[in-house]
Design goal:
Distance between the termini: 32 Å
Radius of gyration: 20 Å
CATH topology: D-amino Acid Aminotransferase, Chain A, domain 1
Shape: globular
Strand content: 15-25%
Largest sheet: 8 strands, antiparallel
Number of domains: 1
CATH superfamily: ATP-grasp fold, B domain
Length: 339
């Protein structure tokens, strides 16, 4: 289902009922839509699991429905506060994910929703942006003036937005694309795009406030949702260093650190990825990776160690709990700055 976490089904979902299963978080990572990279980041999976669990529990307490049932300890789903070791598994309710038929880059959402009926994973990612950091795709799709910002061009530093911007992108296409609101509403099926935006804003507000309490700035992120029995529920994982971008005293703390490091150190691969995506679009090929002539190289050990400290120290700060054996956050940030 994803390149960085495994998916276990205990009771499959049906047309009328949710199923049960779990996410098993690995230390794998993915950048630039490549899928699983050739190395892994120690304790990354556990940090994502713990942060995601904390956010789901806070959302449920605030009255926002989710698919979360607890972290897994000794085969049981329990609250995050009940565990003493970093969790690797998250128990969840399961919905259905029909196949999305396509002919090249033409996707058949009508057939998807005929199969989905009223119990399905909504084939959208709902993106919220509080700032426009360096590396954000929004810089290539819009101008500062579109958001009432006093800049002729995007500066070489993060820019705060006057209010959160909500966008919609595809979820199951080989190369995701941003959508008009009208197209997003069509792709969402029975789920209402206005309701999706409202939920995204609630999630954004909660993560932003939690991050601020930890000394972190929440820059942007995304959610995925399921639709069941007329109700939208937040799904996948929420508010982690993979799904969201955070910063600490101006230093990026998220998967963006690894993206930018690859841009600096593996420019040939980055160029090949861009060329392959362009060629795939021109040729109507769904999987652009088939056209990529260069493969990514593993990262050096000192880079993996620094990024691992970012994940674990950042999770400790966000959770306000020493769940991981990690340096203090300022020290972990120093290591990231030196890369």
């Amino acid at each position: 289902m994803t390149s960085v976490k495994e998916f276990r089904i205990e009771e499959p979902a049906t047309a009328d009922d949710l199923g049960r299963g779990a996410f098993v978080f690995t230390d794998d990572y993915s950048v630039f839509d490549w899928g699983k990279m050739p190395d892994s980041i120690p304790n990354k999976g556990a940090s994502l699991c713990a942060m995601g669990a904390a956010n789901f529990e806070a959302l449920e307490a605030a009255g926002v429905p989710t698919h979360y049932r607890g972290v897994v300890s000794r085969g049981e789903a329990v609250p995050l506060d009940d565990i003493v070791a970093p969790p690797r598994e998250m128990a969840i309710d399961l919905t259905r994910v029909p196949d999305l038929p396509h002919d090249g880059r033409e996707y058949d959402y009508t057939t998807f929703h005929q199969e989905a009926e009223a119990n399905y994973l909504i084939p959208l990612e709902i993106v919220f942006r509080n700032t426009v950091p360096v590396g954000s795709s929004l810089r290539s799709r819009a101008d500062p003036a579109d958001f009432d910002l006093d800049h002729d061009e995007w500066p070489d530093e993060p820019v705060d937005l006057p209010e959160a911007v909500i966008e919609f992108s595809t979820k199951f296409e080989e190369s995701d694309r941003y959508l008009s609101r009208e197209n997003a509403d069509y792709i969402a099926g029975e789920a209402d795009v206005d309701d999706l935006e409202a939920i995204a804003r609630e999630v954004n507000d909660l993560v932003t406030e939690t991050a601020a309490d930890a000394g972190l700035k929440h820059e942007d992120g995304k959610i995925e949702c399921l639709y069941f029995d007329g109700e939208i529920r937040v799904a996948d994982v929420v508010g982690t260093f993979d799904e969201n971008r955070f910063s600490y005293e101006g230093q990026q703390l998220s998967k963006e650190v690894v993206r930018q490091y690859h841009k600096r150190t593996q420019p040939d691969w980055i160029e090949a990825v861009g060329e392959a995506k362009t060629a795939a679009k021109e040729q109507g090929v769904a999987d652009w990776r088939e056209l990529c002539a260069v493969k990514p190289e593993p990262l050096d050990d000192h880079v993996l160690d620094a990024v691992a400290s970012m994940y674990t120290a950042g999770a400790n700060a966000y959770l306000d709990r020493e769940l991981f054996s990690a340096p203090p956050l300022p020290k972990a940030v120093e290591r990231i700055r030196s890369l």
